[in-house]
Amino acid sequence: MYYFMLTKIFLKTPFLTLERKKVQYLTFYIIKNDLKRKNKMTTFANEKQTSIQLALVSFSTSFQKIYCFFNVLFISEEEKIQVIIRHWIRTLQIKFGWINEFDKLIVNYIYNLFMFDTFQASSKLINSFIGHPSCVYSIDYSTFDDCQFICSGSNDKTVSVWDIDNNKQIQSFNGHFRSVTCVKFSSYHYRNHHQNVIFSSSHDKNIRSWDFKHNKPLQILNGHTDFISCIKFSSFNGGRYLCSASYDRTIRLWDVETSKQLHVFNGHECGIWSIDFSSLQRNYNNDNNIGVIGGNGYKICSGSGDNTIRIWDIETYKQCNVFKGHEDIVMSVKYGSNELLNTILS
């Protein structure tokens, strides 16, 4: 049984409440609607926009420092909500996405997976998926053949697949011999080979893929010399290319069709914690078919223990920029969306 310590802070922003919850080693900051405090109606558009801003921020206080929220203590209440909205800080792994009626938030912490309904005025727990005997480090969501699935990677060295509609575990893959750090569904395999495939990275320095429809292992990608922190599919060519970041200070680019390693990016002076592909071409040539892999104009950003964010050109393999400013480990990087396409959040 877990005992929660709850601190509620009322914000100046209408309808929003910032809550702080503790459960064992984790602290959660939750922004949510509080319509009961206001006798004021919101339109559907405002309700949806407010719901989109709901954030669940988890911190592992036993392993890592809380960077952003040390500063939150010294700023106004209204500024607190802006800090959380601007900085989607994830120390373990939080998957934020819309499912079906665009009203469910999938998160993970401790040993279980939980699904929350955030489109209503007050959030509520919808489902919990119990099966891992140890910490869950990563989750991903996808649909195959009109069915909804979650995959999870755990400290127990396994990759599990969960059927959301039936609320049950349908597969568990053993193959990694150390903790599974990141899991991703492959849209490329589904579109091109009609396979339901998951890729996973691990502390064992390998990337593995699994066909969970036919319950069999597929590829093994090896080359890293230290544990792999995260993987990410390309935002071009249907996700054919996979990027991986490692504590060996390298970023590696893979072709999942041929299982070949295409390039090793060197430059960071410490282990790499996070990577992301840009979703926008950043040059004037709109012909995406030119170049070695058809990624003309796309970039990779990476965050590292050397306190820097670096930008890499996928076609030329050159380092484009180095951003300095953080005073400690850059644990998460993410290209912005919509009007923030040219922005990197860290």
From TrEMBL:
The keyword Transcription does not apply. SUPFAM superfamilies: WD40 repeat-like. PROSITE patterns: WD_REPEATS_1, WD_REPEATS_2, WD_REPEATS_REGION. One of its GO terms (cellular component) is U4/U6 x U5 tri-snRNP complex. It comes from the Eukaryota. InterPro entries: WD40/YVTN_repeat-like_dom_sf, WD40_PAC1, WD40_repeat_CS, WD40_repeat_dom_sf, WD40_rpt. GO terms for molecular function: U4 snRNA binding; U6 snRNA binding. Keywords: Repeat, WD repeat. WD repeats lie at residues 129-172, 173-220, 221-264, 296-322. The keyword Nucleotide-binding does not apply. It holds the Pfam family WD40. One of its GO terms (biological process) is mRNA splicing, via spliceosome. This is WD repeat-containing protein. It comes from Reticulomyxa filosa.
